[in-house]
Design brief:
Elements: E1 5-9, H1 13-25, E2 29-34, H2 37-46, E3 48-54, E4 58-64, E5 67-70, H3 74-83, E6 86-89, H4 96-107, E7 114-118, H5 125-135, E8 143-150, E9 154-156, E10 163-166, E11 171-174, E12 188-191, H6 194-218, H7 224-228, H8 231-252, H9 256-270, H10 280-284, H11 287-290, H12 298-306, H13 312-321, H14 330-342, H15 344-350, H16 359-370
Parallel strand pairs: 1-2, 1-6, 2-5, 3-10, 6-7, 7-8, 11-12
Antiparallel strand pairs: 3-4, 8-11, 9-10
Helix pairs in contact: 3-4, 4-5, 6-8, 6-13, 8-9, 8-13, 13-16, 14-15, 15-16
Length: 380
């Protein structure tokens, strides 16, 4: 019996290191589609590639039996989409509108709806793709955009095709959005409470990374695990994760024991993982997006306010983030332009969505001023 296939749009670190790996584990044939024609040819010629799984220990898994297509191979993509059991996107949120037409042509040839797992760390990613598909001529009955929360980190290595990825981190998918029977896919956990898992990821995983990145940058650290070793930064991290856990338990009735275990894993396994060697500049990049009103820091502040919990620790991180400068990061330089014109308060108002009269505005601005000469100095 011929194996069913899964179309994966994007053969990057998440596409091939996570989604293609999980597909092969469950017996599907991954069909990866990528815009980089040279990379496609190398991946195709290789016939297999390695995923190095890292957590407390490390093991290497070889992935083979896949197909890979260039975005220029439109007829082949159309047929792959028409035949697929389901699809997944891992192209980066900014490129979702580009993949719509490719999917739409194949969807038009199907006799059943196409479920599309949206594996993007991007606001409203499922809505963006849905609107793109409707604009391309698809009807609501022909597809389902299934939001996901991807908690596993994956990055490239010096070996071109090899991916370094966290082990044992599931992909959470919205069971309520999926059409038809739920497939048993190893590493894919369907849930009717995706909002809770997404909030947990945003306000613990991502917010914790923000602590280590922005305070770590001030302390002139190069990697996340180095920032974790700075006592004052670690104290701030522990405080933020502690108050975030209280808010998440109050808001979503999450298990306190599961929350403790999750935070313990973040601190002792993910952030401390020297094998991942996660650079500060990667985690800190795009500060304007990360300071947005519904993002990891401001969204957490609003949740804390809702449950009458202290916001001071998060304000400390925002104050540090306003000082982040990296010439190769366009958003950090745009943030500097805003500050040059309007001061730190300009970012708090126009990017974070704060009102000058609210207490948290003064709290954040106070930390911004306090950190004015902190680069390379001891963080207090």
């Amino acid at each position: 019996m011929e194996k069913e296939s899964v179309v994966i749009l994007g053969a990057g670190n998440i596409g091939r290191g996570l989604m293609a790996r999980l597909a092969t584990l469950t017996g599907y044939v991954p069909v990866m589609v990528d815009a980089d024609a040279q990379f496609v040819e190398k991946l195709r010629s290789a016939g297999s590639y390695d995923v190095r799984l890292t957590a407390k220990s490390e093991k290497t898994v070889a992935v083979s039996g896949y197909r890979v297509l260039s975005t220029a191979e439109t007829r082949e993509i159309d047929q792959a989409v028409a035949d697929a059991a389901f699809a997944a996107t891992a192209v980066g949120g900014a490129h979702l509108d580009e993949v719509g037409p490719s999917l739409a042509r194949g969807i038009a040839r199907r006799n059943r709806p196409l479920n599309i797992l949206i594996c993007e760390n991007w606001p409203r990613a499922d809505t963006i793709l849905r609107e793109t598909l409707l604009k391309a001529g698809c009807s609501e009955t022909q597809f389902a955009c299934v939001p996901c929360s991807v908690e596993s980190m994956a990055r490239g290595t010096s070996a071109l095709l090899t991916v370094l990825s966290e082990a044992d981190e599931p992909v959470y998918a919205d069971e309520t959005a999926w059409r038809g029977p739920i497939p048993p896919i190893e590493g894919l956990q369907f849930t009717t409470s995706l909002e809770a898992y997404y909030a947990r990821k945003l306000y613990t995983n991502n917010a914790g990374h923000a602590v280590l990145a922005y305070l770590g940058w001030l302390a002139e650290c190069d990697f996340i695990h180095e920032a974790l070793g700075v006592a004052t930064i670690r104290d701030t991290l522990d405080e933020l994760l502690g108050v975030a856990a209280k808010a998440l338990v109050a808001e979503y009735a999450l298990s306190k024991a599961e929350m403790r275990a999750h935070i313990g894993r973040l601190v002792t396994v993910r952030y401390a993982n020297r094998r991942l060697a996660d650079p500060i500049v990667r985690v800190a990049r795009d500060p304007l997006r990360k300071l947005g009103p519904n993002e990891r820091l401001m969204g957490l502040i609003r949740l804390l306010e809702k449950h009458d919990l202290p916001t001071e620790t998060v304000s400390r991180v925002i104050g540090a983030a306003l000082h982040y400068r990296e010439p190769d990061d366009a958003e950090s330089m745009t943030m500097q332009e805003i500050i040059d014109r309007s001061g730190g308060g300009g970012v708090l108002e126009t990017i974070c969505g704060m009102d000058v009269q609210e207490p948290v505005y003064a709290e954040c601005l106070g930390y911004y001023e306090r950190f004015a000469s902190a680069r390379g100095a001891e963080i207090n």
